[in-house]
Write a structure and sequence with these properties.
This protein is α+β, with helices and mostly antiparallel strands. It has five helices and four strands; from the N terminus they run H-H-H-E-H-E-E-E-H. The protein has helices at about 5-140, 145-160, 160-175, 190-205, 235-255, and strands spanning about 180-185, 210-215, 220-225, 230-235. Helix 1 (about 5-140) packs antiparallel against helix 5.
């Protein structure tokens, strides 16, 4: 069989033209489309990866914030619990202190009330006893007894010590009014003369004297001049005794000091 080289050449040329045409008008657009699609897919994948990374980042950030919030909440809760416990304990301590203070104050008040009542009863008893004694002595007092007290007063006047005598002498010198002698009963003229002479002799001067009665004096005589006084009466003894009894009762009413514990011997 003979080969028709013209036909072969024409077919080859036609094939080459067909290949060029297919490449030019078919494969090239397809290749461009494939490249474009691949680029678009790569871009979309890159965007998806970026979005995934962003989402992962946001998720991690959210997780971190949640963990921080949980820690902060636990810290605040623990702090609030501790503060509540401390406040509760403070209120309990304050209430206990207030109750103890009220109890102590109540006990102290009761103790003071009892002490005041005891002292009031003691003072009232003391006053009643001495009031009865004064009334009894006043009822028993007589004019003759007053005369005897006048003699005692004269002896006391003449045996007066130096400072008391000097004070009365100075008061008599500076006095503008007569000296005053008081007694519960009217002294007889003879008794008045005796007292006047005793005053003149004691102070070496003519002493102006005015005599008066003072019923509230219980068996005694009182001599006063310019703020100075010399007196002797049973009332003085009663007052001294009353003062002594008062001091004794006050000492008795004082709370006893607690004895200090003795150190243990080694």
């Amino acid at each position: 069989m003979l080969i028709d080289w013209f036909t072969v050449g024409a077919q080859t040329l036609n094939f080459l033209i067909l290949v060029w045409l297919m490449k030019r008008f078919l494969y090239q657009p397809i290749l461009h489309a494939i490249d474009a699609r691949e680029k678009r897919i790569a871009t979309e994948l890159a965007d998806a990866d970026a979005k995934k990374a962003e989402a992962q980042k946001e998720r991690d950030e959210f997780q971190r914030k949640n963990e921080e919030f949980d820690k902060e909440r636990a810290t605040l809760l623990s702090k609030a619990t501790e503060e509540a416990k401390a406040e509760r304990q403070r209120l309990l301590d304050e209430s206990r202190k207030t109750a103890d203070a009220a109890s102590s104050q109540r006990q102290e008040t009761l103790k003071n009330d009892a002490l005041n009542l005891h002292q009031a009863l003691s003072r009232r008893t003391q006053q009643e006893v001495f009031a009865v004694a004064r009334k009894t002595l006043a009822d028993l007092a007589t004019a003759s007894l007053e005369e005897r007290f006048g003699d005692v007063f004269v002896r006391r006047l003449r045996t007066m010590d130096g400072p008391a005598k000097a004070g009365l002498a100075e008061a008599l010198k500076t006095a503008s009014d007569p000296a005053l002698v008081r007694s519960a009963f009217d002294l007889p003229a003879e008794q008045r003369t005796t007292i006047q002479n005793a005053l003149n002799e004691t102070f070496s001067a003519d002493i102006r004297v005015r005599f008066e009665t003072k019923p509230d004096l219980v068996c005694g005589i009182e001599f006063t001049t310019n703020g100075q006084k010399l007196a002797w009466s049973i009332a003085d003894y009663l007052a001294s005794m009353e003062k002594g009894v008062s001091e004794l009762l006050q000492e008795k009413d004082k709370p006893e000091a607690k004895a200090e514990p003795m150190p243990n011997g080694s």
